[in-house]
Each structure stands twice: as structure tokens, then as C-alpha cells.
Amino acid sequence: MKTHSPRRYGVIALLVCLLFAPLVAMAVDDPSEMLPDPAQEQRAEAIGSQLRCLVCQNESIEDSSADLARDLRHVVREHVARGESNRQIMDWMVNRYGNFIRLKPPLTIGTLLLWVMPLLALCIGIGVAWWTFRRPRTVTPTPLTDEERRRLSDLTETR
Amino acid sequence: MNGQPSSPTRRRLLMAAPLVVAGGVGVGFWRMLSGMTKGSFDPHDIHAPALNRPVPDFALPDQAPGQGFSAQDLRALKSPVLVNYFASWCIPCVAEMPVLNALKERLPIWGIAYKDKPEHALGFVQRAGNPYARIAADRDGLAAIDWGVSGVPETFLIGPGGVIRWHTASPITETMITNTIMPLADSLKS
């Protein structure tokens, strides 16, 4: 028992370290960049999650740990703290980086096909289904030849 | 509709349809890929709407060994300059330095050190050879956001009156200079 105790202390120390490890990991994305007012912070997060990180391109700036994403998060929070509307902040970003920064593209001529695609796919599906079922299914088969009829009766009689 | 089995023309059309679709998609991909190798198509391009706009308001301090500049300095210009965002920690910036050094005699280049420690930026231009007539420091990277910069290197051709006439988010190459930058800069001079 006594010979085991140093090792046991070691294990306990390791477990304690592991317990606190997530805290260290979380500290990488600095909580000090959050706004003190939870309502404002929530709004900033909502805006940020709609903004594309221009470095990682498929992540929002809220999800990305790229330097530019951190700067943009900071900028969004500054604007929120200044009391600007979501629309104003979005416009500010689009003015600098174009519509590409919006993860949800606006409805324009260029994105029309993208937006109507679900409806279009549904219409095409319904059209194809309607066209298929509308056709008469009862295709009158060509009558059996004498040869075939004889073979058929042979087969059924042997059973 | 008309007699069964379905007419051979219709059957042929139905068989051709997937081939036509596949062919169309193939041509589209081929054009994208050849555009990528030629540099005319970049899937990562963010299409920042900087073109034909006046430079944004900014005022940046000196970065040794150059003198800082502001939007006013660019707007007061009578002839074109190239504004180049760079950083000592950026490998493509190192790669484009020889090209910029060859260009500086024909077109003045103003540099902006992006999120760089002053001593690192100084070391960088001393090592690579300094192509910049003036150098400013954008230490917090906030002016870069106003320019619509998404990374380094990024380069802007500024025409007289401080209007952005051309922009690229990729490293400058010889081909870009001879095919695009110099013809455009020459047309802006007259």
C-alpha cells in the first residue's frame, strides 16, 4: 500500500491536470473579446455567424480562429456596442468585402437560380411523376404464337 | 401518346440527354481548371468591390525605413502608384519581392506592413531589397479591413485622385506587370 502511494498521487495529479485542460484550451479564444452585456454579445454572435471568414471561406467569423476573423469579430462588437442595427453592420461589411462575406447570399439576378432551385426541383419532380403516371399502363401484350401457347400448356399440365 | 413501343427518335433523345448534361458539366469544369492555371479564374477570389472607388479614409504611421502615408497623400497624387500590403511573416510576399524590385523604376510602389512588428518589417525589406518609395505600418490591421484586404499580399493600383483602378489578392508576377499593370498605369498617366 505504502509503496503504491507516490504513483497514486501522480495519477491524481494527472487527472486534476486533465480536468483543467479544457479551460486552457478555451482560453485560446479570448473571452475578453466578448461584450459585457449578454444581449449585445448574443446579437454580435448572431451577426458574426452570418459573416464568412475570408481566410477559411467555409467558416463563419464566429467559428474561425484566423487572425482576420478575430479582427472582424472585434469590429462587429464595436459596431454593436455603438448601437448600430444588424442591417447597418451587414452593409458595412458588404461595402468592404462584397456579397461574398454574407454566408446567406441576397436574392439578386445572379443568385436567382440558387434561390428558386428547391422550388424548381419540386416542380420538375411533380412534372415527371405526373407524366409517368398519366401514361396508360395497360399495354396490351402481343398475342401468343401457337408455338408459345403449346409450350405454355405443356408446362402447366406437367405440374 | 403515339404507338408503342416508343418511337426510336424519342428513345435516342432520352439516351442522348445524360450525355449532353455530362458533356456540359465537363466543359464547365475544363474551363474552370484551365482558368485556374492561366490565372483568369480563382475560386478563392472574394471579389471585394474595391474597384473604381476612392481609397478609404486612413492615416498610418511610418514604418522604418520609409515614411507613412494617409488617404490624403494618395488622393493628392497626379500619377499612378501601386499600393502593396505585405508582411514579414508572409511567404508569397517574399516571392513577389524580386518582381516588385524590378518594377519600382517604372512605377512608384508604396508599401503597407500588415500586422507586423516594426523591427520584423524593417528586417524584411532590408533582406529582400526595398522596393517601396514609402512604407506605412498597419499594426492592428484595421485599415486593411477598410481596404477590403483579406490577406497578404494584396496590391492596388491607385490612379490620379486616389481612385483604385486595379486590385489583386495574389502575388504580383511578371505577366501581370506586362499585361495589366503597366498598360493600365500608362493609360492613367496621360
Automatic annotation (TrEMBL), chain A:
<comment type="function">
    <text>Required for the biogenesis of c-type cytochromes. Possible subunit of a heme lyase.</text>
</comment>
<keyword id="KW-0408">Iron</keyword>
<keyword id="KW-0479">Metal-binding</keyword>
<dbReference type="Pfam" id="PF03918">
    <property type="entry name" value="CcmH"/>
</dbReference>
<keyword id="KW-0812">Transmembrane</keyword>
<keyword id="KW-1133">Transmembrane helix</keyword>
<keyword id="KW-0201">Cytochrome c-type biogenesis</keyword>
<dbReference type="GO" id="GO:0046872">
    <property type="term" value="F:metal ion binding"/>
</dbReference>
<dbReference type="GO" id="GO:0017004">
    <property type="term" value="P:cytochrome complex assembly"/>
</dbReference>
<dbReference type="InterPro" id="IPR005616">
    <property type="entry name" value="CcmH/CycL/Ccl2/NrfF_N"/>
</dbReference>
<dbReference type="InterPro" id="IPR051263">
    <property type="entry name" value="C-type_cytochrome_biogenesis"/>
</dbReference>
<feature type="signal peptide">
    <location>
        <begin position="1"/>
        <end position="27"/>
    </location>
</feature>
<dbReference type="GO" id="GO:0005886">
    <property type="term" value="C:plasma membrane"/>
</dbReference>
<keyword id="KW-0349">Heme</keyword>
<protein>
    <recommendedName>
        <fullName>Cytochrome c-type biogenesis protein</fullName>
    </recommendedName>
</protein>
<dbReference type="InterPro" id="IPR038297">
    <property type="entry name" value="CcmH/CycL/NrfF/Ccl2_sf"/>
</dbReference>
<feature type="domain" description="CcmH/CycL/Ccl2/NrfF N-terminal">
    <location>
        <begin position="16"/>
        <end position="155"/>
    </location>
</feature>
<feature type="transmembrane region" description="Helical">
    <location>
        <begin position="112"/>
        <end position="133"/>
    </location>
</feature>
<comment type="similarity">
    <text>Belongs to the CcmH/CycL/Ccl2/NrfF family.</text>
</comment>
<keyword id="KW-0472">Membrane</keyword>
<keyword id="KW-0732">Signal</keyword>
TrEMBL record, chain B:
<dbReference type="InterPro" id="IPR036249">
    <property type="entry name" value="Thioredoxin-like_sf"/>
</dbReference>
<feature type="transmembrane region" description="Helical">
    <location>
        <begin position="12"/>
        <end position="33"/>
    </location>
</feature>
<keyword id="KW-0472">Membrane</keyword>
<dbReference type="InterPro" id="IPR004799">
    <property type="entry name" value="Periplasmic_diS_OxRdtase_DsbE"/>
</dbReference>
<dbReference type="InterPro" id="IPR050553">
    <property type="entry name" value="Thioredoxin_ResA/DsbE_sf"/>
</dbReference>
<feature type="domain" description="Thioredoxin">
    <location>
        <begin position="49"/>
        <end position="190"/>
    </location>
</feature>
<dbReference type="GO" id="GO:0015036">
    <property type="term" value="F:disulfide oxidoreductase activity"/>
</dbReference>
<protein>
    <submittedName>
        <fullName>Cytochrome c biogenesis protein CcmG</fullName>
    </submittedName>
</protein>
<dbReference type="GO" id="GO:0030288">
    <property type="term" value="C:outer membrane-bounded periplasmic space"/>
</dbReference>
<dbReference type="Pfam" id="PF00578">
    <property type="entry name" value="AhpC-TSA"/>
</dbReference>
<keyword id="KW-0812">Transmembrane</keyword>
<keyword id="KW-0676">Redox-active center</keyword>
<dbReference type="GO" id="GO:0016209">
    <property type="term" value="F:antioxidant activity"/>
</dbReference>
<dbReference type="InterPro" id="IPR000866">
    <property type="entry name" value="AhpC/TSA"/>
</dbReference>
<dbReference type="GO" id="GO:0017004">
    <property type="term" value="P:cytochrome complex assembly"/>
</dbReference>
<keyword id="KW-1015">Disulfide bond</keyword>
<dbReference type="InterPro" id="IPR013766">
    <property type="entry name" value="Thioredoxin_domain"/>
</dbReference>
<keyword id="KW-1133">Transmembrane helix</keyword>
<keyword id="KW-0201">Cytochrome c-type biogenesis</keyword>
